[in-house]
Amino acid sequence: MTDNSSEVVDWETLNDASYVSIGVYLITLAPTAMFGNCLVLFVFWRKSLYKRPVNWFIVNLAVADLTVSLLALPMSATTAFSKRWNLEVAGCQLYAFISFAGACNNILTYAAISYFRCQIVCKNRYIARVKYGRILGTLVAIWSFSILWTLSPLLGWNTYELEPYNITCSIRWTGHSLGDKSYVWLCLLFVYIFPMTISLMMTVTFVFTWTPYAILSTVAAAGINITSPIALLPTLFAKSSCAYNPFMFFLSHNTFKSFKWGFASCTKNNAEDSGRLYMSRVKFNNRVEPSDLPRCSTDSDTDSDSEDENILLPALAGAIKKEKPKIYGYVEDVVPLYSDASFRRMFRLSRQTFQILSSYLEEVPEMKKDGNGGKERMSPQKDILTTLWYLGTLDSIDRIADRFGISPSSVIRARDRVMNSILTHLKSKFIKWPNPNELNQIANNFQQKNGFPGIAGALDGTHIRIAKPTNHGDSYINRKGFPSLQLQAVCKEDMMFTHVFTGFPGSCHDARVFRNSDLWENGLQMIPNIYHIIADAAYPLRIWLLTPYRDNGHLTHEQRRYNNYLSSNRMVIERAFALLKGRFRRLRFLETQKIEYAVKIIMTSCVLHNVCIFNHDEVDDFIQQDVIAANYNVPGIQDCEAQGVQKRNQIARNLL
To answer: What is the domain partition of the chain in residue ranges?
Structure first.
């Protein structure tokens, strides 16, 4: 199968053992490649990956590699065992056409994947424009370009011929005619070098597989003849790509990586139980309840800390509901594309604050990514984003699970991990009483507003609406008629909380909540005499806690000015509550009857509120104005300590 334009080369002989070894290699490679690529196609269909257009590139690679493994690899294995090409000229041309078309498709598809991934990562919202038409057009272009190069040798521009040792066929790399050389050099340029420049950084395996072959081809095209059997190695190594490609998908693609456990994660007990069906528990309508079947731990998402799936026995498969569809890739593919404004709107804090929060929590033992029963836990970042979405919206657990592509139980576990980590490791760092130097700075900042001296913080309470508890539910009904928990807090002039106390029923008066808090017990020690916190008339007057004069219609000008100045400074705590509820909208209604869990949600939100304030996160667009406007008309009390009265009168006289 050579002509005068190809130089006759005396190749070194290949012994029988080498032919057999090559045949064994190829005959092993073929079924491995068939299995891997069929598995890729199966997972693609089973997991509905076709709904994401970019995944069609993976299908394209799998189809091309499967074709090569079904047709070309068995042909070369047969000739290796025969020690000669026994499939005639037509067989050689068919083999070379299939192999070369698969190779071109493989290389160009990698380049296309690199291009689209770069566009998706680097260009905001580009993923929204990656539609089926764009991907289909790219695939058509890839195949058209591949067919153009593989048909050319059949039409006279170069030709297909046997490669060394009569095992494989390819284009004539060593031809000396202008047509042969032009084809070879242009092919190397457009089918290898140009795609390589696109995909080098992403697809290292592409370079690892095809570079030896390209080097050998370049050497041959340059007229340098390699007569050693080593010349076979690049060709044989290149064939391996159709086998390892699918396994690269399983190692690098989260969905494939998690899906593989579905075949291997059943424990011995599961396997033993799978043969025992409790028919007495089958419902009369012949539908089997999922709880009646043995269970098998299966990863249903990129993060495998999700719910166990049922083992679907063949006899009962039709009676079981199909796995609930999920949205995949939200955190991995969509969130990185959000603009900073969109990220903040979605997760209720800035991307920078999220990164800082992640850095705090990533080293926390509870958040360490660790296997659980052979399964890989969700990443800390996905845990945190899931929790932020939970706290920032009123979405149900099912809706959050659907958005993040995980199970409802995974949402709950992620939320609990993050909240426990925050309360254990961050609460004491971000909600703490100021030291003397800080008290002085806080007082100066308040005084700059209107001259009111010595303010160490503003105190008030707010109601967090909850579902009515089953035990003593009526005691949680507040004066507005809905069940709630009391949240009492002190904040600085910048709305950062310095003290938080919560958990008392909504029916309790603010003063009663205050008297049961550690602030009441330790206030005199916490606040030196030159400082004081300010509150409304619902609280008692003390030397360290100043309240307004009771308006009986006969207040003096000094007293009215004092009340106005105090009220103006005290508004900061109402704004802080409005920001807290506006940023973390879950606090508008806690649909849980477990009081201790509601308290954890409230406290976690307060810590995160302070994290945002500390990192100068914008606040104005999150402040919930109706919270500021709400007036619960807390009845005032007559509890005035003499020292408190004296201090209040002195400040009133000195205000300008």
So the answer is: 16-252, 259-426, 436-654
Question: Which residues are CB-contacts of 122 (< 8 A; sequence separation ≥ 6)?
Answer: none
Q: Residue 651: which of 539, 558, 554, 555 has the closest Cα?
A: 558
User: What pLDDT does 114 receive?
Assistant: 75
The per-residue pLDDT for 457 is 97
* Cα angle 397-398-400, degrees, rounded to a multiple of 5: 65
**pLDDT score of 130 more than 70:** no
Percent of the chain residues past pLDDT 70, beyond the cut: 73
pLDDT at 324: 63
| Sign of CA pseudo-dihedral 290, 370, 45, 34 | negative
Alpha-carbon distances of 378 from 254, 327, 429, rounded to whole Å: 11, 16, 26
| Residue range 16-252 in CATH 2.40.160.30 | no
Report CA-CA distances (Å) from 587 to 71, 467, 577, 600: 63, 12, 10, 11
Query: Cα–Cα distance between 467 and 595 in angstroms, integer?
Result: 10
Task: Give strand ranges (E) for 372-441.
Answer: none
Q: Coil, strand or helix: which one is 328?
A: coil
Dist. CA 258–CA 266, nearest whole Å = 14
How far apart are alpha carbons 127 and 333 in whole angstroms? 8
pLDDT value for 493: 96
In angstroms, the CA 169 to CA 152 distance is: 15
> How far is Cα 306 from Cα 406, in angstroms, rounded to an integer?
6
Q: CA nearest 292: which of 307, 306, 313?
A: 313
Contact between 452 and 565 (Cβ < 8 Å): yes
Which run of H or E residues covers position 162?
Answer: strand 160-162
Most confident of 18-27, 159-168, 566-575, 618-627: 566-575
- Taking 70 as the threshold, does the pLDDT of residue 148 lie above it? yes
Q: Which of 346, 342, 350, 392 is nearest to 624 (CA)?
A: 392
Mean pLDDT of 629-638: 60
Beta-bridged to residue 375, according to DSSP, are 372
Q: Give the residue with greater pLDDT, 180 vs 459.
A: 459
Buried/exposed code over 518-547 (b: 16+ C-beta within 10 A; e: otherwise): ebbeebeebbeeebbbbbbbbbbbbbbbbb
The residue among 399, 11, 523, 509 whose CA lies nearest residue 230 is 11
555-559 long-range Cβ contacts below 8 angstroms, 24+ apart: 558/652, 558/653, 558/655, 559/652
Give the residue-averaged pLDDT of 520-537: 95
Candidate ranges 151-160, 232-241, 257-266, 567-576; pick with highest mean pLDDT: 567-576
Residue type, 493: E
